[in-house]
Design goal:
Strand content: 5-15%
Order of helices and strands: HHHEHEHEEHEEEHHHEHHEHEEEH
Number of strands: 12
Bound molecules: pyridoxal-5'-phosphate
Helix content: 25-40%
Number of helices: 13
Low-confidence stretches: 1-12
Structural class: alpha/beta
Strand order of the largest sheet: 1-7-6-5-4-2-3
Mean pLDDT: 93
Radius of gyration: 23 Å
Length: about 400
């Protein structure tokens, strides 16, 4: 045994203290939670225990003992509905990446539910976007009488919560965050932004004044179609502490196995996202410029990569690139229904954000959607392979329907 006493927690654990370094996004995504790992393992351990041995000195709950922000370098874990080592590691990493204090939940919708409970607005201003968030809002409306109003056409009042999804599901169209932040703050209302379609480094809604940022971590944070997760981020620790007290009782915590998968996935977040975003931009521009109105393609939905060609604010709001999801409307419902079976690489399934490219005839899961609409989530495959697959599917579908197709190689 060495007699040298090293008081640094991180050094004692065999991991070097890097907290004084000014690190960039990709480095933080790999190393932000290193200090929590007490083992020499390079890959972080999985902690599945739901309960933890108490050790003295005891601080009673009445004396203010709390375990909402526990970490493995202390003994303050109590029960995993309050906090748990693997979700702490994920929350610490997400906080470093998202520019605020991140709290994780069992799903994106569990996070949105927790947000509405925390803010408890008399009026929620929301419009379009992911249909599930409207489902949550309607439950809250039934319980609290909260009014649900259209975000784009209602003048906000003090105490309102404005909830903006940008880029919006399923089209990938962007809305100006700053505009809604200014509108909300001018009257004493709050702005939450669902940034699921474009996590950093693509965009960070705090830069345009969002009060709350929400993510379905199921999508890009998980990135491999194998974990459900939700994330809420706020800059004020007091607010986050209350959020976590409430989470202890609403109970929608992230499972430890999912948290561990999340930590693992975040290490490649930037690599995956930049690739997926660049490929989506290539594909959506090709579709818009060469295929719109031709063959089976009626129209390519307005998408942030297309908006950015004319709109300066889109380029400013999304400095890292555009959403890896886009939509198009085919000429007939029957065509939209049949295209997915023609595709060989793009798999027909709901959800998005994974390394595998997916296509969805959106009417299957969103009852409010145009029945001719297909949503595409671009994975990390080679973009030329994805393009070829789309071309052969369009040609085959056009042949079935005896329509002229002009698919240039572009
Ligand atoms: C998927 C999604 C959600 C819901 O997230 P879950 O993790 O499925 O609960 C919320 N908002 C957007 C924009 C989404 O795409």
């Amino acid at each position: 045994m060495s007699s040298t006493k090293d008081t640094s927690k991180a050094a004692a654990a065999g991991h070097k203290d890097i907290s004084d370094l000014d690190l960039s996004f990709s480095t933080l995504s790999v190393h932000a939670a290193d200090h929590l790992n007490k083992l020499p393992d390079i890959a972080p351990p999985i902690h599945l225990s739901t309960t933890y041995r108490y050790s003295p000195p005891y601080v009673t709950a009445a004396e203010g003992g709390d375990a909402y922000f526990a970490d493995p370098t202390t003994s303050s874990y109590i029960y995993s509905r309050l906090s748990a080592p693997s979700s702490t590691a994920l929350e610490v990493t997400l906080s470093a990446l998202l520019g605020g204090h991140a709290t994780t939940f069992a799903s994106g919708l569990a996070a949105f539910t927790a947000l509405l409970i925390r803010v408890n607005p008399k009026r929620l201003l929301i419009s379009g976007g992911y249909h599930g968030c409207h489902g949550v809002a309607h439950i809250l409306q039934r319980l609290s009488g909260m009014e649900i109003l259209d975000l784009h056409t209602t003048e906000p009042k003090a105490g309102d919560l404005l909830h903006l999804e940008t880029p919006e599901n399923p089209t990938g169209i962007a809305h100006p965050i700053q505009h809604y932040a200014d509108k909300a703050h001018a009257v004493g209302a709050l702005l939450s932004v669902d940034s699921t379609f474009a996590p950093p480094p693509l965009q960070n809604p705090f830069n345009q004044g969002a009060d709350w940022v929400m993510h379905s971590g199921t999508k890009y944070f998980g990135g491999h179609s194998d974990m459900l997760c939700g994330v809420l981020v706020h800059k004020d620790m007091k607010e986050v502490k209350t959020l976590r007290e409430e989470r202890q009782y609403t109970g929608g915590v992230l499972g430890s196995l999912e948290a561990w998968l999340g930590v693992r996935s975040l290490k490649t977040l930037e690599l995956r996202l930049l690739r997926q975003s660049a490929s989506a931009e290539t594909l959506v521009k090709w579709l818009k410029d060469e295929l719109e109105g031709k063959g089976v393609v009626e129209s390519v939905s307005e998408h942030c990569a297309l908006q950015a060609r004319n709109e300066e604010w889109v380029r400013k709001q999304m400095p890292g690139g555009y959403a890896p999801v886009f939509s198009m409307v085919l000429k007939k419902e029957e065509m939209a229904k049949n295209l997915p079976e023609k595709l060989r690489l793009w798999m027909h399934a709901t959800s998005l954000g994974g390394v595998e490219s997916l296509v969805e005839w959106r009417a299957l899961s969103d009852p409010t959607c145009d029945t001719r609409l297909l949503r595409f989530s671009v994975g990390v495959e080679d973009v030329e392979d994805l393009k070829k697959d789309l071309k052969q599917a369009f040609e085959s579908l056009a042949a079935d329907n005896a329509v002229e197709v002009d698919v240039r190689s572009g």
